[in-house]
Write a structure and sequence with these properties.
The protein has three helices and no strands. It is elongated and about 55 Å long. Helix 1 (17-39) packs antiparallel against helix 2 and helix 2 runs antiparallel to helix 3. It has helices at 17-39, 44-80, 82-100. By secondary structure, it is mainly alpha-helical.
């Protein structure tokens, strides 16, 4: 995990922070809904449908954050130095690898 000091760098997603928080709260509500569905012993296919919807919502947040990282953090690092750019690109590749791992 990267070690960043608060205030050291303004993260690329900061301009859309409220949007991300809104989306994450919606996902949190979906998770509570899934728990409720299991507690109520609802039909497994209905639960799986909701799991798929929640998974897609999380993937959308992830893709947005990857895009923000590339557009801001990587670009800023590239302006600073080749070494800094390579470090940020490596971070992005590792994060993407974690996202696509099954």
């Amino acid at each position: 995990m990267s070690e960043h000091v608060a205030g050291e760098h303004q993260h690329g997603y900061i301009q859309r922070k409220d949007d991300y928080l809104r989306r994450l709260r919606r996902i949190e509500g979906q998770a509570r809904g899934l728990q409720r569905m299991v507690e109520e012993e609802q039909y497994c296919i209905d639960i799986l449908t909701q799991v798929a919807a929640m998974t897609k919502a999380l993937q959308a947040v992830s893709l947005g954050l990857v895009e923000e990282h590339l557009a801001h953090c990587v670009v800023d690092a590239a302006r600073a130095s080749d070494e800094a750019a390579q470090e940020k690109i490596s971070e992005a590749v590792e994060a993407i690898a974690r996202l696509v791992k099954s």
